[in-house]
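My convention is simple: the sequence line spells out the residues, with the fold written below as integer tokens. I include a record here:
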Amino acid sequence: MTITEAIIFISIGAIAGFMNTVASSGSAITLPIMILAGIDPLVANGTNRLPIFVGFLTSVINYAKAGKIPWKKSFILAVPVAFGTAVGSILVGSLPKFYSELFIIIALVISLTLVLLNPKRFLITQNLHEKEITIWAILMCFVIGIWAGIIVLDTAIFILFFLVLMLKHELIQANIIKSFLILVVGLISLCIFVYNGQVDWYVGITLSIGSVIGSYIGSTFAMQESSRIWVFRIIKTILVLELGSLVVRAI
């Protein structure tokens, strides 16, 4: 790897780390770049788990220092997410590309519909009544974990939707819990991809250096009250751009 390539990957990692922390879809940047660089798509998928893990570890440490993480709820939700991620990471090699892209399109359409139909729900800060964790919430976390293990793209957005719409958390706290859950996703899936020899360590480490920088900046920004409206705007923009990109590719 040349110095120029290292600088490019570190820069990409920083952008992706920031996006992952404040909203989602850093993988929409890192995965295509790695594939464009000639890395096998399955190896790129595995390599991508390293900067995700390192980036969200940085975010969680930053949130923990600020005393912002509800540890009990985060650990309870992390268990089904971890099991689902393990299942998805094992199944990913046998899933045809066509079905992966089809699932992504369906998920993006549903996500964008939820955002457009009830935008104010993501900005409410008062009179919230958080829901208890039910068996349905546990099942939903397991399904999200499977998705994360297979594709990872937009997992953070789906977790935010789950926390805001189903468990009635306000957006800033939901973002903090999301970071802890994606940290678990990154660790479980990374271990499985490493075991299968599907991680390019040189690329993964350079991306991770940038991811630490971007994630620290992103988590610091995400704890501010003023971030709420910007996080929501970023989510809408990401969904529209991703859906538009997939439609253009399909045409």
Q: What stands out?
A: The first helix runs from residue 3 to 22. Residues 51 and 82 are 18 Å apart (CA to CA). The mean pLDDT is 83.
